[in-house]
Write a structure and sequence with these properties.
This protein is an alpha/beta fold. It folds into three domains: about 5-95, Elongation Factor Tu (Ef-tu), domain 3 (Beta Barrel); about 110-215, Rossmann fold (3-Layer(aba) Sandwich); about 235-315, Beta-grasp domain (Ubiquitin-like (UB roll), Roll), CATH 3.10.20. The chain has helices spanning about 80-85, 120-130, 150-160, 175-185, 195-205, 255-260, 295-300; strands at about 5-15, 20-25, 40-45, 50-55, 65-70, 90-95, 110-115, 135-145, 160-165, 190-195, 215, 235-240, 245, 275-280, 285, 300-305, 310, 315. The strands form five sheets. A five-stranded parallel sheet has the order 9-8-7-10-11, with helices on both faces. Strands 13-12-18-14-16 form a five-stranded mixed sheet. The chain has a four-stranded antiparallel sheet with strand order 5-2-1-6. The longest helix has 13 residues, at about 120-130. The chain is globular, with a radius of gyration of 20 Å. It binds FE2/S2 (inorganic) cluster. FE2/S2 (inorganic) cluster binds near residues 274, 289 and 304.
Length: about 325
C-alpha cells in the first residue's frame, strides 16, 4: 500500500436514519483539507488494516470538514460495523485525499440524480453544488422504507424537486427506472448510486442514451457477465523499468507486481475506487472494473490493475 494519508479527527457522529450514521472529519490542527468536487470519495484507514471508501456528502465549498455517511451493512466485512459500534468522537484516523471517478457535469441543461439507500451520499453533495450554482436538477430517493431514508430534509431545503420511493409502500417493488429516463428533457445527464440491482436497472434503462450521459457509481464490484472469459496467464512489461513479469491465471496484475517487490498504488482491490488506474502502453486490456465507461474501455488508454487483465498474452503498462 503506497497510498498517501493524513490524520483526521472525528469531529461529530450523527444518526441520520435507521442504520445510517453521518461522520464528520476535520484536521486536528484546524487547517484546511484538500479541496474536492461532488462525487469524490475518501479512504478511511480503520484499525486492523481495514480500508474503506466513502463518498463525501458535505458542501464542496467547505474545505474545513469532510462528511461521509455510513450504512450498517448486513454483510459487513467489518468496516461499517466498526464505524457504527466503535468509532468515537475525538478519535484520529488516517484518511486519504479525495479522488473523484464520479464527476458532475455542471453545465448540463438538466440533471437527474437517482439514489438508493446509502447511495444518497454523493447525491447530496451533487444536489448542494447544483443548487449553489443555480443549475436545474431533480432527485429521486429510494429506500426500503421511510425509516431508512436519510437527508431528505437537507435535500428539500435546497429547493430542487425531491421525489421519494419507499419499497414498503409498493409491496416491495423497487423504483421504476424507465419512466424517469423517458420523462426527462433532452440532454439530461443522469447519475445513479445505490445497490447492485438498482444500478443494473439503471444501466438497462439508459442503454439507449449516447455515451457520457448516464453516470453510475458502484460501491461494490459490478457482477461480471457470465460470458467473461476465464482468466489466462500473460506477460506483463513495465515500460519505465523495462522489467518483465509473468501474471498467472489465478493472480491479478497487482498481486503479481507486489509478489515481485514492485510498488503500486491501490486501495479497494475490487475495481471500484480508481486508485490503481494505470496507463496502457501496448497490448489490449480485458476490463473487469466497475468504473470505466464503455468509451473509456474501448479507448484502451488505462486499466485498473487490481482486477483487469490482458485480452492477449502480452501487456505493457506505464510503471
Ligand atoms: S484498487 Fe480500487 S480500483 Fe483498483
Amino acid at each position: 500500500m503506497t497510498e498517501q494519508t493524513f490524520p483526521a479527527r472525528v469531529q461529530r457522529i450523527e444518526w441520520a436514519a435507521e442504520d445510517i450514521l453521518a461522520v464528520e472529519f476535520r484536521r486536528p490542527d484546524g487547517a484546511a483539507l484538500p479541496a474536492f468536487t461532488p462525487g469524490a470519495h475518501i479512504d478511511l484507514h480503520l484499525p486492523g488494516a481495514m480500508l474503506r471508501n466513502y463518498s463525501l456528502m458535505s458542501d464542496s465549498r467547505d474545505t474545513h470538514r469532510y462528511v461521509v455517511a455510513v450504512g450498517l451493512d448486513a454483510n459487513t466485512r467489518g468496516g461499517s460495523k466498526y464505524i457504527h459500534h466503535d468509532l468515537r468522537v475525538g478519535q484520529v484516523i488516517p484518511i486519504s485525499a479525495p479522488r473523484n471517478h464520479f464527476p458532475l457535469v455542471e453545465d448540463a441543461p438538466h440533471v437527474v440524480l437517482i439514489a438508493g439507500g446509502i447511495g444518497i451520499t454523493p447525491m447530496v453533495c451533487m444536489a448542494r453544488r447544483l443548487a449553489a450554482i443555480g443549475r436545474p436538477y431533480e432527485i429521486y430517493v429510494a429506500a426500503r422504507n421511510h425509516q431508512r431514508a436519510a437527508f431528505l430534509e437537507d435535500l428539500r431545503a435546497l429547493g430542487g424537486p425531491v421525489h421519494t420511493h419507499f419499497d414498503s409502500d409498493h409491496g416491495g417493488a423497487p423504483l421504476a427506472m424507465a419512466p424517469i429516463i423517458a420523462s426527462a428533457p433532452a440532454g439530461t445527464h443522469f447519475y445513479c448510486c445505490g445497490p447492485g440491482p438498482m444500478l443494473a436497472a439503471f444501466e438497462t434503462a439508459t442503454a439507449g442514451l449516447p455515451d457520457g450521459f448516464a453516470h453510475v457509481e458502484y460501491f461494490k464490484a459490478r457482477e461480471q457477465p457470465a460470458s467473461a472469459a476465464a482468466p489466462g496467464a500473460f506477460t506483463l512489461t513495465l515500460a519505465k523499468s523495462g522489467k518483465t513479469i509473468e501474471v498467472a491465471a489465478n493472480q491479478t496484475i497487482l498481486e503479481a507486481l507486489l509478489a515481485n517487490g514492485i510498488e503500486a498504488d491501490y486501495s479497494c482491490q475490487d475495481g471500484v475506487c480508481g486508485t490503481c488506474e494505470t496507463k496502457i502502453v501496448a497490448g489490449v486490456a480485458d476490463h473487469r472494473d466497475s468504473l470505466l465507461s464503455k468509451s473509456e474501455r474501448e479507448s484502451n488508454k488505462t486499466l485498473m490493475i487490481c482486477v483487469s487483465r490482458c485480452a492477449g498474452d502480452h501487456l505493457t503498462i506505464d510503471l
